[in-house]
Specification:
alpha+beta; 5-stranded mixed sheet; 3 helices; 5 strands
């Protein structure tokens, strides 16, 4: 999959288009921090790395915006733990 992760600020979520519908990561902005509260990948694509691709794109945007990230759901916490070296600078 070569789709691009985009921010949809009107819906407070990152989106990754897929053939089965968008994968999304909902967030809440606080001063200097983005709390990712929920992630969802379409059922037919679960377990194929789509959630990781979504979060890698979100982390790149969060870094570019100079924000920190807080895991507000279990999947994001697991992702950040598994990629601790890559995203240590973003952890609050």
């Amino acid at each position: 999959m070569t789709a691009t992760v985009t921010d949809n600020p009107e819906k407070s979520r990152y989106e990754l288009p897929t053939e089965a519908g968008p994968a999304v990561a909902l967030y809440r902005l606080t001063p200097g921090t983005m709390v990712i509260t929920y992630t969802e990948v379409p059922w037919p694509l679960r377990g194929r790395g789509v959630g990781a691709q979504l979060l890698h794109g979100a982390m790149q945007d969060i870094r570019a915006r100079g924000l920190k990230v807080v895991a507000g759901c279990g999947y994001v916490a697991q992702f950040l733990a598994e990629h601790a070296d890559a995203y240590a600078d973003l952890r609050r």
